[in-house]
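re: that chain from earlier
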Amino acid sequence: MKNLLAKINLKLLILVALVFTLSYIMRVNLAITLLLICLYYYLKSRKLTNKNCNLLNLTLLFLVIFVFSFFIIKESAPVYYIPFSVVPMLTTLLFSNLEVSLLITLASAFSIAPFLVSPLHAILISLISGISSSIFILNARKRSTIIRAGIFTGIIQVITLVLIENFYIGLPGRYLTLFVNGIASSMIVLGILPVFEYLFNTATNVSLLELADFNHPLLQRMAQEAPGTYHHSLTVGNLSETACSAVGANALLARIGAYYHDIGKLQKPEYFSENQEKEESKHSNLAPTMSKLVIMNHVKEGMELAKKYKLNPALTDFILQHHGNSLVYYFYRRALENVDEYQEISEEGFRYPGPKPNSKETAIVLLADSVEAAARALKESSPAKIEELVHKIINNKFIDGQLDECDLTLKDLEKISAVFIRLLCGIYHIRASYPQDERSENNFKKSSKEDTHLSAKDKKNNP
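^ sequence. v structure.
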């Protein structure tokens, strides 16, 4: 443990020394470098950093606005040409977090200030436009929302300058420049957003909605070749989206991830119960160990399809993690029943390779996947039975350790259970059997007889 801490501290010292060295070479004030390092470790202590929101990615975003600003100032262009809201918008779209966006805005505002003659104007405009644009663009799902955010940001920037100068309107061109600046910033964001999504291996709401289009070849194939899996995935998506909304997770990411989590079943759809048309299962003539391999292999085949169709990397976690390292219980039980006296069956051999879900979204899809499949198999789908089933499955997943690596709390699990129960009761409720209308039936029989009689008469008149 001490050796591990020593290595971590050594890496930290090397990283900090490298950052200060680069800042000195670039002639950046070292106080600004210290500010950036403090802001990053603030984010880390708040647990706002993850594999996408890491130091390298945040540094790249900071450098975008810093380089923009540096060259504009170096060319003696007006400070109002600096696209103040580009990085706050990008940060909010990429990480869906206002706190991260605010800290990046602070860092960029104070970094460019030393290069200006009157830094107060630039700092205030940068902070106000950055904060307002982040709020306008949060949870944006359409490209038109980004443009609208740019228009509103341009208006806010003009108002800020008017307030800074105590309502003194001088050099009207500056106000027009700031208004156009806001719109231009949104256009720049639209243009470079796909590049940053690729570099950061992430997906924004805008690109996720494009993946929700049912014209996507993978979803079309699933609807045609594995209709049971397709319907199951849609239901899991609805369950996951509603549950994520209840616990404050990314609902859209979970829904789209659920649509694609079972694409691996396209390779052998007939071996999965939801696609079997006959009562006799394909696994009847297979050994449990072979059946286990076919079932478990859909994760690997899903990853191969994702690579082939160049699926967004943000969705591959759902393919890999939607079973965690859980046990393929049915075939494990079958193997135990057929085992010889001296043969030993290892439980580990019947577990998925993992990894376990490492985010709220992937964990919720894991739970929704298990709950929906079990609810569909219920013979008696009464509310009481569904409630008992949901609690049992979630408890089993928790006890089995499948939720150990995600941030779901016990309170979250209670909310998720309530959502699953409510939705599944609505989907699989017992339908009332409506009494047949005897009069309608008699009328049908009567009309049938009349038609028969009429046709016989017509036949006689028309030999």
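The first helix runs from residue 2 to 25.
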